[in-house]
């Protein structure tokens, strides 16, 4: 007999008569993709949750061993496929810093990058909110969110040529300038969307049934959140003002005004599911503010001109000198990090490791869901807002 | 505390042997720590109120290829109260011929987030972590043979009768 039994073996062997193992997923809509949760239950009480992932593993890091930096960008798109622009932005920033060209990027390019990233952040949060509603049993918000998200998808498709996986932000510039009329259409969308957000809040955020299902459920204390490496709305929901757009001050974020919403425990306890959900609705409002500021500057100071070429600063060959570098950026779901190792000789990185926010956010799930009801587990998992493309990479 | 102060703090506390090398060739300087000390160093850096690295951003395993015969673990720490970052590395020579896996001490007791990162390193690179509570494969199937991110890995031809490629 082995002396040090792994925790998994301890949990799954020798169940008591009243205990039962239930597999939730991988084909289960409330697991938001192909995630399998192994539950040890006693009646309706969840005693232990064991997540199993890897069903969507596409060998991102293995592929990176044989691709150049530009070729990796489409692969990066497919990690968090709800927020491809943000993934690209973080990756491209990392490569630019290693090359030492991050200060030469034209301001118009930077503003366009932030604009499309924030649009993508809104669409990612809309998915999170819509699918969370449907997890809880509210069908209408799902349809409303997808209707509004479709406008963003159409705009980004107009700019990049692709609906979800953009490959729009390139090392040193952009694929193309924004199409003519994009700024106007974007302002139109913002004007259309603002009342819709209020409507959504009235429908779901202040809904008594919704509050009853989420307030006080899945409370994540701040120290646990930090210890488990949670980031993004998970960490802010527990009451910490931690947003890398402000901490690291990358890109043009220092020039833009926006607030960082944090959880206050208004409806239940600090760090419960409702707090995490509320952060997302507030962040949408903040993203709208950022977009408005970007649009204003893109139409005045950094106006489009015939001479402007977003590809002017593209390096011909990307060969960073020998070093390793970790870049982190604020994705809709939390801290997205890339760890590069370059050998300084070839265009192919020696190693790229991606630190997905969902991967770390998910790891806290067993900790906060002991002794709860199965129905509440759905509420907690939905409030974490995972995307399996990033967990499995 | 800046990088040099952290360096001095560690040598003062654990002696000269704790820092094997200082890597300073890129934008982010890194401390190469003696692998026997890594858990104590991490614990000190987390609990000391002057450093307070309470957040482990990333833990990556690295295989340095057949010429160097070296496995490395890279820790990216962040301090939320001090808004700082620090890179620690620790490495061990390993010839890959022996059936024994390269072994490092687990930091999962210090930062629980390391648990999944270490499982990932075990899964993809075949690095063993002493004291890890639940070291199983995480992304690949449990019965997968070999460690894909090792530089000498040859892609499997089939998996359970299913052709790959």
Write structural notes for this entry.
The complex is a heterodimer of chains A (393) and B (165). Chain A has 393 residues and is an alpha+beta fold. Chain A is 48% helix and 13% strand. Chain A is built from 16 helices and nine strands. Chain A has helices spanning 7-12, 60-64, 69-77, 84-99, 107-136, 140-160, 182-205, 208-214, 222-227, 233-237, 244-247, 273-299, 357-363, 365-368, 374-384, 388-392; strands at 19-24, 36-42, 45-52, 169-170, 173-174, 323-331, 334-342, 351-355, 372-373. A four-stranded antiparallel sheet of chain A has the order 1-2-3-9. In chain A, strands 6-7-8 form a three-stranded antiparallel sheet. In chain A, strands 4-5 form a two-stranded antiparallel sheet. Chain A starts with 6 loop residues before the first helix and ends with a helix. Chain B is of the alpha/beta class and 165 residues long. Chain B has one domain: NADH:ubiquinone oxidoreductase Nqo5 subunit (Beta Polymerase, domain 2, 2-Layer Sandwich), CATH 3.30.460.80. Chain B is built from four helices and nine strands, in the order αββαβαβββαβββ. In chain B, the strands form three sheets. In chain B, strands 1-2-5-4-3 form a five-stranded mixed sheet. The longest helix of chain B has 12 residues, at 3-14. The model of chain B has no long low-confidence stretch (mean pLDDT 87). The interface between A and B is large, with 39 and 35 residues.
Largest sheet composition of chain A: 4 strands, antiparallel
Provide the helix percentage of chain B.
10-25%
Report strand % of chain B: 25-35%
Principal-axis shape of chain A: globular
Instruction: Please count the helical segments of chain B.
Output: 4
Order of helices and strands of chain A: HEEEHHHHHEEHHHHHHEEEHHEHH
Low-confidence stretches of chain B: none
For the record, give the distance between the C-alpha atoms at the N and C termini of chain B, rounded to a whole number: 51 Å
Name the average pLDDT of chain B.
87
The oligomeric status of these chains comes to: heterodimer
CATH architecture of chain B: 2-Layer Sandwich
Q: Describe the sheet with the most strands of chain B.
A: 5 strands, mixed
Count of distinct strands of chain B: 9
Based on helices, strands and strand pairing, what is the structural class of chain A?
A: alpha+beta
Q: What is the tally of beta strands of chain A?
A: 9
Described by the principal axes of the CA atoms, the overall outline of chain B is elongated
Mean of the pLDDT scores of chain A?
89
**Strand pairing plus helix content of chain B: what structural class?**
alpha/beta
From the alpha carbons, calculate the radius of gyration of chain A and give it in angstroms: 22 Å
Structural domains of chain B: how many: 1
Q: From the 3D structure, determine the CATH topology of chain B.
A: Beta Polymerase, domain 2
């Amino acid at each position: 007999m082995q002396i040090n039994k792994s925790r998994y073996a301890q949990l799954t062997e020798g169940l008591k008569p009243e205990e039962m193992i239930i597999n939730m997923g991988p084909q289960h809509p409330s697991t938001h993709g192909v995630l399998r949760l192994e539950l040890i239950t006693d009646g309706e009480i969840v005693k232990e949750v064991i997540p199993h992932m890897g069903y969507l593993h596409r060998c991102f890091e293995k592929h990176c061993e044989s691709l150049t930096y530009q070729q990796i960008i489409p692969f990066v798109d497919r990690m968090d496929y709800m927020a491809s622009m943000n993934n690209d932005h973080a990756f491209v920033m990392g490569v630019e810093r290693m090359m030492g060209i991050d200060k030469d990027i034209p301001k118009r390019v930077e503003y366009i990058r932030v604009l499309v990233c924030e649009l993508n952040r809104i669409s990612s949060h809309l998915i999170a909110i819509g699918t969370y509603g449907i997890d809880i049993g509210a069908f209408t918000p799902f349809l409303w969110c997808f209707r509004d998200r479709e406008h963003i998808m159409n705009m980004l498709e107009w700019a990049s040529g692709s609906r979800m996986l953009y490959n729009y932000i390139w090392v040193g510039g952009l694929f193309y300038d924004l199409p003519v009329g994009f700024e106007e259409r974007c302002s139109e969308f913002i004007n259309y969307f603002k009342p819709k957000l209020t409507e959504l809040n009235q429908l779901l955020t202040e809904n008594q049934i919704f509050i009853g299902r989420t307030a006080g459920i899945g409370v994540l204390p701040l120290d646990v959140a930090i210890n488990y490496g949670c980031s993004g709305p998970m960490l802010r929901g527990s009451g910490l003002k931690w947003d890398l757009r402000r901490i690291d001050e990358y890109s043009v974020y220092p020039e833009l005004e926006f607030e960082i919403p944090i959880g206050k425990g208004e409806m239940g306890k600090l760090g419960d599911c409702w707090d995490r959900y509320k952060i997302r609705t507030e962040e949408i409002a903040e993203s709208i503010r950022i977009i408005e500021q970007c649009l204003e500057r893109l139409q005045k100071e950094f106006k489009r001109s015939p001479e402007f070429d977003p590809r002017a600063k593209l390096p011909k060959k990307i060969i960073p000198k020998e070093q390793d570098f970790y870049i982190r950026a604020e994705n809709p779901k939390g801290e997205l990090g890339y760890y590069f190792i370059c050998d300084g000789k070839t265009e192919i990185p020696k190693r790229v490791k991606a630190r997905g926010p969902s991967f770390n956010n998910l790891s806290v799930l067993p900790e906060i869901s002991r002794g709860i009801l199965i129905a509440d587990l759905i509420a907690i998992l939905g409030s974490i807002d995972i995307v399996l493309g990033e967990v499995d990479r | 505390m800046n990088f040099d102060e952290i360096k001095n703090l560690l040598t003062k506390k654990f002696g000269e042997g704790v820092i094997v090398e200082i890597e300073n060739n890129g934008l982010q300087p890194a401390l190469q720590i003696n692998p026997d000390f890594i858990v104590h160093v991490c614990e000190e850096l987390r609990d000391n109120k002057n450093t307070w690295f309470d957040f482990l951003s990333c833990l990556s395993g690295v295989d340095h290829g057949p010429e160097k015969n070296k496995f490395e673990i890279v820790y990216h720490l962040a301090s939320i109260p001090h808004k700082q970052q620090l890179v620690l590395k620790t490495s061990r020579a390993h010839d890959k011929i022996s059936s024994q896996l390269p072994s490092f001490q687990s930091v999962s007791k210090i930062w629980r987030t390391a648990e999944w990162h270490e499982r990932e390193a075990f899964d993809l690179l075949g690095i063993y972590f002493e004291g890890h509570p639940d070291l199983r494969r995480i992304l690949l199937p449990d019965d997968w043979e070999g460690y894909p991110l090792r530089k000498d890995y040859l892609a499997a031809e089939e998996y359970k009768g299913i052709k790959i490629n």
